Amino acid sequence: MIPELGHFALILALLVSLVQGTLPLVGAHRGNNGRAWIALARPAARAQFLLVVFAFGCLTWAFVANDFSVVYVVQHSNSRLPLEYRIAGVWGGHEGSLLLWMLMLSGWTVAVALLSRHLPDAMTARVLGVLGLIAVGFLAFILLTSNPFERLLPAAEDGRDLNPLLQDPGLIFHPPMLYMGYVGFSIAFAFAIAALLSGQLDAAWARWSRPWTTTAWAFLTLGIALGSWWAYYELGWGGWWFWDPVENASFLPWLVGTALIHSLAVTEKRGCFKNWTVLLAIAAFSLSLLGTFLVRSGVLTSVHAFATDPRRGIFILILLAIVIGASLFLFALRAPKVGLGGSFGLMSRETLLLANNVLLVVAAGSVLLGTLYPLLIDALGMGKLSVGPPYFNTVFVPLMVPLLALMSIGPLARWKHADMGAVLRRLTFAFAAAVVVAIAVPLLYGKWSPLTAMGVLLAAWVAGGSAVAIIERLRAGGLRAQPLHWWGMHMAHVGVAVFVVGVAMVSSFQEEKDVRMEPDDTVSVGGYSFRFIGVREAMGPNYRAMVGELELSKDGKVLRTMKPEKRAYLTSAMPMTEAAIDTGLLRDVYVSLGEPVGERAWSVRVYYKPFVDWIWGGCLLMALGGIVAISDRRYRMKKAAASAAIAPQGAPA
Amino acid sequence: MNRFLLPLGIFIVLVAFLAVGLNLNPREVPSPLIGKPAPAFELPQLHKPELTFAPKDMQGKVWLLNVWASWCVSCRQEHPILVDLAKTGTVPIYGLNYKDQRADALRWLKQYGDPYTLSIADIEGRVGIDYGVYGVPETYVIDKAGVIRFKQIGPVTQDVLEAKILPMVLELNR
Question: A134, A295, A400, A606 — which has fewest CB within 10 A?
């Protein structure tokens, strides 16, 4: 009964979103005559949200109550699965992931409906209308091709269990965070489309759009970082990024979203880049949709692309073509009429942010090309190939070098016209400090190489730039007066620096050993030694594990016992590695258990990974920076202020 | 020409590629062995280890070589299809028992049925390397001249059998 209620709620949600996606848009178009229809937008958004939440609740209930008469539950759960994974199992497969996507979309929509009191009603109606149309597409997709409530009669005895790879705390949080980010860009998109529809492409539009974009970006940052961290400890290879097509699918909207955040700043402050900003907003969401298509259609080979069905692929492709095609067509119609905004000199903050945008978009383009290249070549009948990390590293890293180099300069440069000589003089201290660090740190770790030094130099330069900015304000006595969004920006920039340190250090100084160990054998990496004690058997709730025990010590002092596991899940018989990791501020030591290679011997893999946690720490700082930035009170100003004139030059972005 | 139409143009090209891509299978990797003679080997038979088998024994016949193992889960999925195929007698199926233990393999055949004219034991997986086996099960169609004509990676499904393997066997036998 409850699954039917959920199904019914989804059908109702589709009907409501049809109303939400049509009448308010028509009403806004008709102006004052359409007031009654404009007024429909908010209640429709609320109703749609409640219906989707209800449907999501029904599916969750089916998992919690082990209702094995629902096909989706049978495929992704089991009565022995612990409760937290039964709940996370809701988004462990295709149908549930889409329902989660939909839940996020209606959540974002209702948030706009509730927090947009200061916007003109027509604008709100257009934004909610566009979001309603997207909801129509996704609800129809769920109902027509991927219904999670489909029954299995007679019911199964028990479920086939959740994919063991996904039975991990990482899975509980990674998809919701990632989808919050993905779907959050729909708001920036809806604002852009609404602005194009109304012809009101101005600073006010950019200001309304900024906090939503930054929030979505912060969630996406966290989501990607969680995914990377999960891959690091769960897959047992010790890597943190693989340039896998699905990872790229989440990274593309991030790159374009980052460009969008910066470009929105220019549009809001100076009224320039308007067309460009709109195009980026369309692109960021389009790439989110493209990511959904790539993952869900299985068009690229990838570990993530389980359960693929050509019908679904075609449906999403048509949806993609309609949504993106229509918005780019609208762009082509309206963009020529948009003015250019304030002029600026060659040396100015505008120019620096333009360079930022160009670099980020080129980076996104090259990642997209690498991701789709195998498909393009195959479609042209030119053979089969795959594009791996060497391509991405060769293309991506050189683009990041100038980007990082500009990161210190941008925040110090003035709008309109900047004296670059003076800016660089202010950064002398930062540059000197960065050079010292770049020479000293790699030497301290025993091996100096130009690449490591370059990474550390850039990281110190970026952090130094933020330090200079903060110290200057402190001297001027205006630190307290600095708005929160200024602090947010510097936090995010320092986050990037922290991230770069992690990447540079771990790729230069990590050590790994793959050895065969018998009890009492020792192996050492990075100054740590591991004594193999042995392996014993243990039972988990739904798996049998071989638990290895290794004694970790440094300089003869025993630190702790590490227990890597090799699990065999009972229902799927799939073997899983659970690495044991000793986490530290300056290094991780990492052990994973391989295969038994003799009577008492096992293959064991040990890693020493300096600064690896800085990678995720940096991402966390970036996301926090985003959250701090949107807490700024200027985003909560009233209607009157929202359409105020462009801020005077020299205002912080 | 309106330069603002450029993004739309690029997007349309991309959609066209994606549409073509949907009908391609990224997992289907062509084997370099197709159209080449089946690599030679001589290995003991699974049931009668004192006897051996070599591909050249099959000169003049069209046959299937199916790589299987008792530890292979997907093999269980295709097995009923092979058993049914063997009953029809359309084409002889030879099994290459890959990286397996003899006792396990025999027990497995007893339990699930034995569709093979005979099986060959490749305990160390040497022959598997020559044939480019990278996922078990794999199935090869080999013609009268001993040339590999088709390779199926992963389980043989009813679709693949009817659409590809059987028509090919029929044609090669003509």
Answer: A400
Could you check whether the bond before residue A154 is cis, i.e. omega within 30 degrees of 0? Answer: yes
Q: For chain B, what's the residue count?
A: 174
3-state SS, one letter per residue, for A455-512? HHHHHHHHHHHHHHHHHHHHHCCCCCCCCHHHHHHHHHHHHHHHHHHHHHHHHHHCEE
Chain B residues near residue A299 by CB distance under 8 angstroms: 18, 21-22, 24, 26
Please tell me the distance from the alpha carbon of residue A137 to that of residue A119, in angstroms, as a whole number. 26
Q: Among B154, B158, B156, B160, which residue's Cα sits nearest to residue B72?
A: B154
The residue type at A41: A
Query: What Rg do the C-alpha atoms of chain B give, in angstroms?
Result: 20
According to DSSP, the β-strands at B93-98 and B63-68 are parallel
Q: Please state, in angstroms and rounded to a whole number, the distance separating the CA atoms of residues A166 and A84.
A: 12
> Which helix H or strand E contains B94, and what residues bound it?
strand B93-98
User: Is A325 within 8 Å of B12 when comparing Cβ atoms?
Assistant: yes
Min Cα separation A108/chain B (Å): 27
What is the count of residue pairs from A and B with beta carbons less than 8 Å apart? 66
- Minimal Cα–Cα distance from B17 to chain A, Å? 6
For the segment A461-480, the average pLDDT, to the nearest whole number, is: 87
Distance separating alpha carbons of residues A123 and A25, to the nearest angstrom: 9
The answer, yes or no, to whether residue A647 has pLDDT greater than 60, is: no
Secondary structure in 3-state letters for A113-169: HHHCCCCCHHHHHHHHHHHHHHHHHHHHHHHHHCCCCCECCCCCCCCCCCCHHHCCH
Tell me whether residues A336 and B2 touch, CB distance under 8 A. Answer: yes
Measure CA A217 to chain center: 7
Cβ–Cβ under 8 Å, residues A256 and A288: no
Of B4, B22, B24, which is closest to A317 when you measure between CB atoms? B22
**CB of A384 less than 8 A from some CB of B:** yes
Query: What is chain A's Cα-based Rg?
Result: 26
As a whole number of angstroms, the distance between CA B134 and CA B27 comes to: 12
Task: Select the residue from B2, B3, B8 to test the A interface by mutation, using most A Cβ atoms within 10 A.
Answer: B8
Q: Which residues of A224-254 are buried (b: 16+ CB within 10 A; e: fewer)?
A: bbbbbbbbbbbbbebebbbbbbbbbbbbbbb
Asked if A591 and A606 count as a contact pair (C-beta separation under 8 A), the reply is yes
pLDDT tens-digit map of A66-100: 999 999 999 889 898 999 999 999 998 889 999 99
What is the token pair recorded at A482? 């600095």
Q: Assess: ipTM above 0.85.
A: no
Query: Which residue from A152, A169, A123, A143 is spatially nearest to A62, judged by alpha carbons?
Result: A152
Any idea what the Cα angle at residue A367 is, between residues A301 and A352, rounded to 5°?
165
Helix axes A310-334, A169-198, angle to 10 degrees: 30
> Is A374–B26 a contact, with Cβ atoms under 8 angstroms apart?
yes
Candidates B14, B15, B17, B18: best to mutate against A (most CBs of A within 10 A) is B18
3 state SS of A596? strand
The tokens describing A596, both together, are 């038994």
Indicate yes or no: CB of A384 within 8 angstroms of CB of B30: yes
- Which one, of A374, A378, A357, lies nearest residue A283 by Cα? A357
What is the model's pTM?
0.83
- Which segments of chain B have a pLDDT < 50? 1
CB A94 within 8 A of CB A307: yes
H/E element holding A566?
A: strand A565-569
Separation of alpha carbons A633 and A649, rounded Å: 20
Q: From B23, which residue of chain A is nearest by alpha-carbon distance?
A: A310
